[in-house]
Design goal:
heterodimer, A: mainly beta, 3-stranded antiparallel β-sheet, about 0% helix, globular, B: mainly beta, 7-stranded mixed β-sheet, 4-stranded antiparallel β-sheet
Amino acid sequence: EIVLTQSPGTLSLSPGERATLACRASQSVSSSYLVWYQQKPGQAPRVFVYGASSRATGIPDRFSGSGSGTDFTLTISRLEPEDFAVYYCQQYGSSITFGQGTRLEIK
Amino acid sequence: QVQLVESGGGLVKPGGSLRLSCAASGFTFSDYYMSWIRQAPGKGLEWVSYISISSTYTNYADSVKGRFTISRDNAKNSLYLQMNSLRAEDTAVYYCATFGYDSSGEFDYWGQGTLVTVSS
């Protein structure tokens, strides 16, 4: 089973700042099958980035995904108040696993 | 619009059984692989199972293999999860979701979830 480790666990930033969220895999993951989700309290997760770097429909271009192999990154160029939430990465290979999440909180 | 509505959650004793249902509308259910994902209170997401369009193929997380059974009824636009031999660690909100098996393996559309609590 591929283990995804997200860092940091919690990221405290202010609106307008840049956020960099990391997702490291225990084995190589095909870029085609790396997904990022945002989850807000009391809501189901929502796809933000799929295929490591493709934004889902309706996702603002301040969100960008990158990476390959075992290291992937979700970058938010300038934080808006609505961006503060928990973000999960997920891979699909022989099995399906999620990272433990990064909580992005307002500083 | 796409809607997934889970039901069937509740309080059950350890060793007991529960059957979850997910009613789909607003899209062609029989065109999609479907999946269950769970989230323990205050914890992260854990994939549970997925099923192919015609029910030919199913896959399970090791943590539920042999205890849970996923099924679907395309005529009723419904997805199910039969959960047997429940344990305290199965306590979670259970979400049904569409699964992009032939695309990027993403869970595109989610329901609002149903809470399963396993406790004596």
